[in-house]
Amino acid sequence: MPENYTLTQVREGVQDGENVFVFRYTKSDNTELLGEHFSFTVMEKNNRLLGVTWMDKQFEKGTKLPSKEETTKIAKEYLAKVEPDLWGKLKNLWIDLHDETIIVDGKNVIVTGMKYKCFIPTEDTYAWVIVGLDGKVITFERGIVWQGGRVSEKWLHDAWLKEGSH
Fold first, then answer.
1. Count of structural domains within the chain
2. Each residue's pLDDT tens digit in the chain (166 positions)?
3. Residue 105's domain spans which residues?
4. Which end of the chain is more exposed for a tag (fewer CB within 10 A), N or C?
5. Strands of 3-154, DSSP E
6. DSSP class of residue 64?
7. Are 26 and 130 in contact (CB under 8 A)?
8. Is the pTM of this model over 0.85?
9. Residue 15, domain member (yes or no)
10. Backbone phi, then psi, for 57, in 5-degree steps?
């Protein structure tokens, strides 16, 4: 858990037909949707981690990012810790920059990282790891259904939550 974050919400939801719990941690001075947060989603039935995201101004665009090779290495090391059997199932599709926008002190801040996007043929789903400044993993998602666009619910994405699409 990152420093200076406290638990502010636990909610129940459904992702791809499965019951999930979504945990949200925020900084005390930035608790609104679209603000800085550390959130993760787990399946109710087995506590499997489906995703985690860490939206923080320290990952603001313009910071030094890892190379594609470093991103691959960091993604592999991260997955070895959180989902050891997943790495061998992945087919890497691409590695490239990925941006998200958060609001800090009333101003838009672009959070950026290197996205390692993969397909999981045995599940017909997608997974990715996004690596930011200093090799810190800022996002991991797995089991994402994609049919001409994302179908899976976006519990870790504040813009989706704000729309009230759930």
1. 1
2. 899 999 999 999 999 999 999 999 999 777 789 999 999 999 999 999 999 999 999 999 987 899 999 999 999 999 999 999 999 999 999 999 999 999 999 999 999 999 999 999 999 999 999 999 999 999 999 999 999 899 999 999 999 998 886 6
3. 6-161
4. N
5. 6-15, 18-26, 37-43, 49-55, 91-104, 107-120, 125-131, 137-144
6. -
7. no
8. yes
9. yes
10. -60, -20
